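Supplementary material to the annual report.
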Amino acid sequence: MSRKRHRLVPDSFGLKRRREQGQAEADPLRGESGSARAAVAELVQLFPRGLFEDALPPIALRSQVYSLVPDRTAADRQLKELQEQGEIRIIQLGFDLDAHGIIFTEDYRTRVLKACDGRPYAGAVQKFLASVLPACGDLSFQQDQMTQTFGFRDPEITQLVNAGVLTVRDAGSWWLAVPGAGRFIKYFVKGRQAVLGMVRKAKYKELLLSELLGRRAPAAVRLGLTYHVHDLIGAQLVDCVSTTSGTLLRLPET
Amino acid sequence: MLGFLSARQTGLEDPLRLRRAESTRRVLGLELNKDRDIERIHGSGVNTLDIEPVEARYMLSGGSDGVIVLYDLENSSRQPYYTCKAVCSVGRNHPDVHKYSVETVQWYPHDTGMFTSSSFDKTLKVWDTNTLQTADIFNFEETVYSHHMSPVATKHCLVAVGTRGPKVQLCDLKSGSCSHILQGHRQEILAVSWSPRCEYILATASADSRVKLWDVRRASGCLFTLDQHNGKKSQAVESANTAHNGKVNGLCFTSDGLHLLTVGTDNRMRLWNSSNGENTLVNYGKVCNDSRKALKFTVSNGCSSEFVFVPYGSTIAVYTIYSGEQITMLKGHYKSVDCCVFQSHFQELYSGSRDCNILAWVPSLYEPVPDNDEPTTKSQLNPAFEDAWSSSDEEG
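Predicted assembly:
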């Protein structure tokens, strides 16, 4: 049983006097504990813009934020506050109901406008960005909300779907989407499997983090090893064990 | 701790604070103790455990072979090494034993004279403890997954039964027949639980990913369905509210009844406000859940920050309820853990698993200081740990 639980509660409840913790291990990834906004800002730096010719806004994932901000409930609350203030948008990435992408609203707006420049649906998209985005911070939109509150007609909604700004969720409801995100999702899913495979092929199914980052990325990993490692740690697809030689990534037994 | 004691003594602080602080400290020190054992009677996996609420002394366990055993948990011997003995059991040669696996057992909430058990053989049996005979049998058309009787009910004696069919049945113990049916779910009902706060509020969890709260006095449907996204409630979308992205396996109200915890096969545990059905969005991380039937987990009672004990594979994961952080994983079972119960008087946890063992997790605080004046008595030592070689230097 781990004794680490005694660090988490105040001294009066602790069984033994806790010793002062030494310096946090000099580990490139795990030393952060800050706010969610700082985490998102750092993660969007990791996004490879050049890969998509700058057509996609930099996307971070919620699981990556969990790896940088260890307290998940606090991270969720801060992300929700940022969403309510309108600084970030949360997008449902299609491959997993739990995976949410986080994009800064400004980046999203500029990229979408650039993508629909000169196309027939530009008018509908601009109307959408101007009226719906600031007003409604949700991930999804309903039929009556779009027609009554915001005054969109059915052909306009079809144009929005063609533009890639909305994706069909259900009869009469749509997810918010990023135009051109399909390539990103394909690279992401392949890269995630490739990095997991690297850990799986290791002896005893565990790898030191520093060794993993030092290896050459396989061809399937286009978004960068650090990007995928943050996501795997935050999604709890690998267990993080702290050892004297740094953090160790181990596949869970189940 | 001395600060708490002196504050209580001088009247600066409420006595409850000291009690809660000490309870929390003891729960944080839970671990497997070599001195505490539970007699092994079951020949197959232990599916359910229940400790009686009156004295917290007797424990019932139900196994996959239909056997029900009653244990006495109290340590009346003077020795630290103690095995909890089975007082009596409903074995395979009992005329009224269940034919298939017993899924849920529960003591009658007001005294230990009666208990109820439900099983895959489509029956709910009401037993008299002293004579160990069935007082009543309720038959159903489908296998019974779970049943629960309200712990605070004074005006009714309803037992809520969740079966393979989508209807929740309420059986009345006084009249001996099913009095109500609650309709609303679409697939099998995996878990039911009455609220410990209000005797008419019932929560049901189903394989169709929905958790519904009912007031049994109301004639029309459920009060509300829990929605994990806390979306805007509109009539068209009401049918799409899901509590989890998979089957909902387990339900547990917190001890004050203000919050409800649910676990689902999407490997998540969620905390809900039970008065308005809002998802409090506390994030516990991945709570592995492979069970195809109900997962029985439990919450602590009487600590300053309440803990939830969830079976996680072959370990038990302990989380603080309101902040979501994982405190520890209790490792000790060999196969997957099916159920656990918390004894709040002594802050002990008992867990039953598929390896036919029931383990007791006891707070380990300080080692008793060996008293140099008394000679060490041999009877203190567990016979399993005594060594057999002679201590003399000569050979043979």
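Chain B has one domain: 14-363.
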